[in-house]
Each structure stands twice: as C-alpha cells, then as structure tokens.
Amino acid sequence: MKMKKMMDSTTVIITTTDNRVLLQKRDENPDIEYSGYYSLVSGYLEEEETPLDGIIRELKEEFEHKKSQKVHFSSITYLGSEYRADYDRWEYIHHTYLMDDAADIRILEGESFVLLDMDECLRLENLAPHHKLFLLKYRAGLCKIDVREQSKKMFDEITVRDLIKVESVGDVKNYSLLEAGTGFVIGEDTTLSASIPAVEAAKYIGFLQFVPKVLRGNHYHFRKVEYMLILQGRMHATFQKYDDSEAVIEEIWEKGDLVRTLPGCVHTLTALGESNVLTIEFSPQPYVARDVLMNDKK
C-alpha cells in the first residue's frame, strides 16, 4: 500500500545573539511526530503558502511576549531544503535571531523551551533526529549570518528583495574555486566552460535559451526553489511578490551570475541586446506542473 504524501513543512533554527539555540519540548501526544522530544520550531505548510510565510505564521502562533504586543525576531534567512523520504515531503529550513530577552517570552505550543549551546543540543538523546541533521548540516552557515545586518528588519517585514539572492562566480578556470564554494564560468560560444558546486541537491536541471524581446516566466511557485546560472549574454529580470503587485524591482544579470529565487517570487526574464542568453536552471525540488502559477496581477 502506497503511503499517502504528507504535507510539506517549514522549520526555523532560532538562536540568541550569544549563539544559543532555542529548542521546543514537544507535548506527549501519540499524534505528534517525535512526541516528548526536543525539536526546532516547525509546522506544516498550508496548500497556498510559501515556506517563508509559513515560518512567519508559526512564530506568531507559537510565541508571545509577556510585556509587549509581539515577540521580536530578526529577519529570516533561508538555509536550504531537505527531502524526507520516510514521509514523502519537503522540509524548508530557515534561521532567525531572537531579539528579546528569553525570560520575557512564553511558548504557546509544546511543554516548554530551552536555550542550549549547539554542542549541548547535538548531545541530546531525545532531540528529533531530522532536526539534529539540520543543525549538523547548517551549523557552519549559521556562523556566517550577521546579527547586526539581520536585526535591521523584523521577521514579518518581508520584501521582494528578501526572495532573491545573486552571487557571481569566478571568470578564471580554477578548480580550487569549487572547493571554496563558488565555481567559474569562462569563454564564449564554442569554448564555453562552467563548473559550480551543488548549492542544494538538484532534482530538476534545465538548459534554457532566452532570445531578445521575448519574455519568459511571469510565474511563481509555492514550493520550488530555483537557481539560475548565466552562461552567456546579459539578462533583464523583473520581480515582485505574488501577493503584492505594487513593489516591482528590476535587475540586469551577466555571465557568471548565480541567482536563487525563493517561492512566492514572480519572475519575468528576457535577453538584453541582440544576442541570446544561455542559462542553466536547477532546483532541489522536481518539476510539478500544479506548482507553476502564472501571474495575473499586472
């Protein structure tokens, strides 16, 4: 008998500004996965909800401040996604800083919460095993998150800029760049060569050619995280949040730009100039037709 697909879920690693990790003690309830265990804050996603919107909802539902109207968390950083084969679902992992004194907050779901150093968390025998995996996998990335930068906005102040990340890879054929986590794109036409390390495991890979004056895209996803590497040419891109047609940003991408687009971001692309643009697109999530939603907000 085939197991019914579970709803996808979203998870957040909450740390304090002195790098302690907040763990929730789950209720003793047989209907709860790993009941009675310590865990990160997580929850199932609603059908038409992005992972980022889901985390914002979970933080609002699960915490309250004893003295003010709401608990203050920093802006949220996307860390990656993991496929749970045992439940046939995707888990999206994020990070945020707790900006309030922990003594001033209370948790509304679960028995209680604790704040532990990372090593203490990983030594717990009753830490939900998939959440232990997330901490092990992303602990190095947590060290690179600047609390001063993240605290400039609160967790529920999401703009379209938060859904896009652009990095440039090298333009010299140097395989040590792969070990450094960047890679390279060199040459033009028949001499073109590109190598990049896998940012996330790729379940979908596509080679796309864009031609001048022809728009492609104008859609968004609720689940699919997309990466695009520009191999040749210059690309014009416009972005907006799926639920906000007013805030639109434009960017120009060039050869060597690696762009990550998160769910909920409407993206429309076209080649600039007279030449075609060559790209590789990949995603940790497989292509699912029902998760391609056309933008009807002009």
What characteristics describe this protein?
298 residues, mainly beta, Nucleoside Triphosphate Pyrophosphohydrolase, Jelly Rolls, 2 domains, five-stranded antiparallel β-sheet, 5 helices
Explain what you see.
By secondary structure, the protein is mainly β. The protein has 2 domains: 142 residues, Nucleoside Triphosphate Pyrophosphohydrolase (Alpha-Beta Complex); 137 residues, Jelly Rolls, CATH 2.60.120. The chain is built from 5 helices and 21 strands. It starts with 8 loop residues before the first strand and ends with a strand. The mean pLDDT is 90.
What's this entry about, in short?
This protein has 298 residues and is mainly β. The chain is built from five helices and 21 strands. The chain has two domains: 9-150, Alpha-Beta Complex (Nucleoside Triphosphate Pyrophosphohydrolase), CATH 3.90.79; 158-294, Sandwich (Jelly Rolls).
CATH superfamily of the largest domain: Nucleoside Triphosphate Pyrophosphohydrolase
The helix content, as a percent range, equals: 10-25%
Query: Which stretches are low in confidence, meaning pLDDT under 50 for 5 or more residues running?
Result: none
CATH architecture of the largest domain: Alpha-Beta Complex
Number of strands: 21
Globular, elongated, flat, extended or rod-shaped: what is the shape? globular
Which assembly state applies to the chains in this document? single chain
